[in-house]
Amino acid sequence: MNALGLVSMRLCAGLMGRRSAVNPPFLRFSSGMTSSQIDEEVAKLLQLKAQLGGDEGKHVFVLKTAKGTRDYNPKQMAIREKVFSIIISCFKRHGAETIDTPVFELKETLTGKYGEDSKLIYDLKDQGGELLSLRYDLTVPFARYLALNKITNIKRYHIAKVYRRDNPAMTRGRYREFYQCDFDIAGQYDAMIPDAECLKIVYEILNELDLGDFRIKVNDRRILDGMFAVCGVPDEKFRTICSTVDKLDKMAWEDVKKEMVNEKGLSEDVADRIGEYVSMQGGQDLAERLLQDPKLSQNKQAFAGLTDMKLLFSYLELFQVTDKVVFDLSLARGLDYYTGVIYEAILSQTIPASVSTPAEQNGADEAGVSVGSVAGGGRYDGLVGMFDPKGRKVPCVGVSIGIERIFSIMEQKAETSSEKVRTTETQVLVASAQKNLLEERLKLTSQLWNAGIKAEVLYKKNPKLLSQLQHCEETGIPLVAILGEQELKDGVVKLRNVASREEVDVPRADLVDEIKKRTL
Amino acid sequence: MQLKAQLGGDEGKHVFVLKTAKGTRDYNPKQMAIREKVFSIIISCFKRHGAETIDTPVFELKETLTGKYGEDSKLIYDLKDQGGELLSLRYDLTVPFARYLALNKITNIKRYHIAKVYRRDNPAMTRGRYREFYQCDFDIAGQYDAMIPDAECLKIVYEILNELDLGDFRIKVNDRRILDGMFAVCGVPDEKFRTICSTVDKLDKMAWEDVKKEMVNEKGLSEDVADRIGEYVSMQGGQDLAERLLQDPKLSQNKQAFAGLTDMKLLFSYLELFQVTDKTSSEKVRTTETQVLVASAQKNLLEERLKLTSQLWNAGIKAEVLYKKNPKLLSQLQHCEETGIPLVAILGEQELKDGVVKLRNVASREEVDVPRADLVDEIKKRTL
Hints:
The complex is a heterodimer.
Chain A: E1 6-7, H1 35-51, H2 74-93, E2 97-98, E3 104-106, H3 107-110, E4 132-134, H4 139-148, E5 154-163, E6 177-186, H5 193-208, E7 214-220, H6 221-231, H7 238-246, H8 253-263, H9 268-278, E8 281-282, H10 284-292, H11 294-298, H12 300-318, E9 325-328, E10 341-347, E11 373-379, H13 383-387, E12 396-401, H14 403-416, E13 428-432, H15 438-450, E14 455-457, H16 465-475, E15 479-483, H17 485-490, E16 492-497, E17 503-507, H18 511-518
Parallel strand pairs in A: 2-5, 7-9, 13-14, 13-15
Antiparallel strand pairs in A: 3-4, 5-6, 6-12, 7-10, 8-9, 10-11, 11-12, 15-16, 16-17
Helix pairs in contact in A: 2-5, 2-14, 5-12, 6-12, 8-9, 10-12
Chain B: H1 2-6, H2 29-48, E1 52-53, E2 59-61, H3 62-65, E3 87-89, H4 94-103, E4 109-118, E5 132-141, H5 148-163, E6 172-173, H6 176-186, H7 193-201, H8 208-218, H9 223-233, H10 239-247, H11 249-253, H12 255-273, H13 279-282, E7 292-296, H14 302-314, E8 319-321, H15 329-339, E9 343-347, H16 349-354, E10 356-361, E11 367-371, H17 375-382
Parallel strand pairs in B: 1-4, 7-8, 7-9
Antiparallel strand pairs in B: 2-3, 4-5, 9-10, 10-11
Helix pairs in contact in B: 2-5, 5-12, 6-12, 8-9, 10-12
């Protein structure tokens, strides 16, 4: 019974649903245009080409992606899928939901949120409607989402691409389109528990990704501010000195001090006092020691920060992650909106700055993140309030995983390892050594698909066995189901292990189970 | 604040416009959970068929997209000229796919790509359309033996729609070459092919009379030509329709149509092997419940047809007979196909002498001679 059988003479595939009309002959869809309309469009195209810079009449098609962007080929996608799968399963293990937001926002939504970095925002052309810009990170859209939907509590992750018009001269190799992978907990809760969970999540993810040893540095914006105050930094210079201190992961102290004194106008004394503090690292003990520091403990901000740092460490102890967490007074992080704890995860095996490309673009969404950094974040209690008409505050703490950096590392690992990265998950190729068995091959393949088996068959009526086996080897298909006249008569299929070349005749009825068993 | 003033002023009040851009929307966690489920079903089907996946940037060089979308080009989102390359947001996934193949000199690939695309639809004309929306494409690129990849695409659609459990569905197929051949034999001038094509395409939304009106009044076809097109476009069927049309003297002489029809036959043979013709989707949505049409291939058998039809009605069988003294067998069979009647009881001089009726299965065309006395039972058995 031929029930797929509605050959409709009416069906004109000029436009099918949302598929658009396309001209090039090698594509299936007609443009729905007459030849005179086509001539008109070609003329427009040539005119546009001339406007765009001329090519002396030659038809030179510029075949490239936009600067700072790249395609992901199937191998890269396979790695990407594996990384996302590990990360997402960790988020889900911690009870997070996910959301998605549009790739562009109203320009005014993004205005005034990124400080100096605002010049790196991609704007859309004014085409007569709203002014739009491509999202620069996932945090501002998150804050907008919370305010718009009047949400006060949510634990959410969001994995998506963001866009920054980085100047290639200054920041070699940076991508302009790259993934961010954010996890945030919004809501008023008892102090430091959600903050601790964020760190536990970073720890779990970095462990499971098997990237080698790592450290998570933590500090607190209040401790930094308190420290600047007791060292004698004028209030109005706090943020700018903060950015300078942030460069300690890339620059030596002498150069950082030079910038503070020569460019930012601090006295040498003040710079030296800062120098003493920022060389300090430790664990819970450091927090306790600093609480004994007479100057620091008198400063309200620093006291609050240090008390919370102690509390944080006690939770991290319970979460069993203290072996890799370090309280580091030199950690500053560039973005303006952090109000409390801040942290950054760094791989111990770092790659020199000149080699790594998206190194600086790891999850951190601000300038000046150190080489080897794979995650960063902190508490930002004031951001959502900026979006809410009544200024209602929703405290937030979160982390951004440096997924591009992780992709890079995994891609390098895949290249150096002997294990092939498969781009498909096919379990078996249905093949034949003899001619005129296309029908039987198609039938068997269909039966396997119907049983949920991942199967392929060559689009050739009479392929050579060798090319079929080669296809398996090239794409990593582990099994091949070989049909032949004799096998068909006997009601069996020759199931061969591609790697070992061991063959066994399997009764047709048992084939599905046999394949499942062997490709667990 | 200065920038806000530049952007349009707010009389000093802190009025935050809290919204997403027109035509775009957030996905909340519930929607994301549904989305994840749907993607998971679709992707696992693609993977079952050995497809790989790729990803491309959200924007392309403006010149890559230029000249590819005809009239729709005005719906492309451009990025502002900020001193670098001129960029535009991708309008679909097909042009980026073609650019990817050419750039990487790839000649063979079976790939899927699920991603958002962007179109500045004018809301006045197309109410409720999103400007940012997902597309989910599957494509096989490469030179292969005819119709096998085409059949696999259909198998994939079939599997996906089944697994998504959306209820009954139909997959309509046709061929650009058959359409063009049909237009040619009906007398459509070459330069009007594409525009007549768009008009015929509206048959799923408009009645034939209106479509014919557009063809004649707006597109300048003669009524004759329009009527000829009308005869063809009312045809639906399966492999049998392809075979029947290959017998059509005019159509089979047209090179394009012949090639298209031959491939259509081949396609259906593969679809048969792929088992996309099973009961679930075969059940046409019928408007009648007729079990059998009483027919005849020969002339002057109206009386006998009426007699048999009446006997079937008396036995509770749902039967029909054409209101024509001497109908062609072909039109009687066509009627069965169009309305989904599964059986036809064919009378002829010889059958009448032998006291039998030729009972034919419309879909499979299998025939068997059934003694008159057993006919009712046989029909009941077969149309449970």
